[in-house]
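Hi P.,

Sorry for the delay on this. The queue was packed all week, but I finally got your sequence through. Input first:
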Amino acid sequence: MKVTKSGELDQVKQTEPSAAKVSVALAAYNGERYLLSQLTSILSQLGEADEVVVVDDASTDSTAQLVEGLKDARIRLLRNSSNQGVFKSFERAMRSTSGELVFLSDQDDVWHPDKVRTVTAAFTDPSVSLVLSDATVIDAEGRVLDSSFYRSTGTFEPGLFRTLIRNRYLGCTMAIRRGMMQRVLPFPDKMPMHDMWIGIVNRLHGKVVYLDQPLMSYRRHGSNVSRSGSVLQRLKWRINLAQNLFQALLR
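Then the structure:
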């Protein structure tokens, strides 16, 4: 199934993927435990002209050495001289890509074998600017906690005001077209989540497709980045987000 910009459900046609270059933007920090499995699951699906841009956010473990040890020409490793945080790291990774289709990736998940093929097929419609899929939820050891991330939280609904109240977008399930990426960057300061910003800006300017099938395993463990915050903090984030959206409309 897919959800279009208007929120209507429709069937996704199973077509062959486009020949567009695929880039993967991956932000890493002290990711040595899971990063190899994730990169292996990604690289097995990419062509020779595709790329993975890894930004190592000043890790203190062997993350950088692990990436370099793969000796894969499709991987480009960028290292922050000091810790910049997940938003700035993702922004640097995305800016450093060259592909038409840019997939976002966390360091500790696992992509299913048909993720790239299925997502790129959804982009054969030139009006589509953002594609998301469902995900299986796993624990630190890879045991399945839930067969569907989005169904466990209700359902995927791309509506602007609903997303402002509660984030409907999971960044690691996203792929974005380069033209839309240029609209969402740079990420504004003092925002709650980069994926929430991407989803809302795309809602204003583009078309989203949601694939109602798990194309990756989303790992939940004690080291996941969380931005829940207090009620007051969440309110401040929404106010800042609304202000930044107003500015985005004027671009």
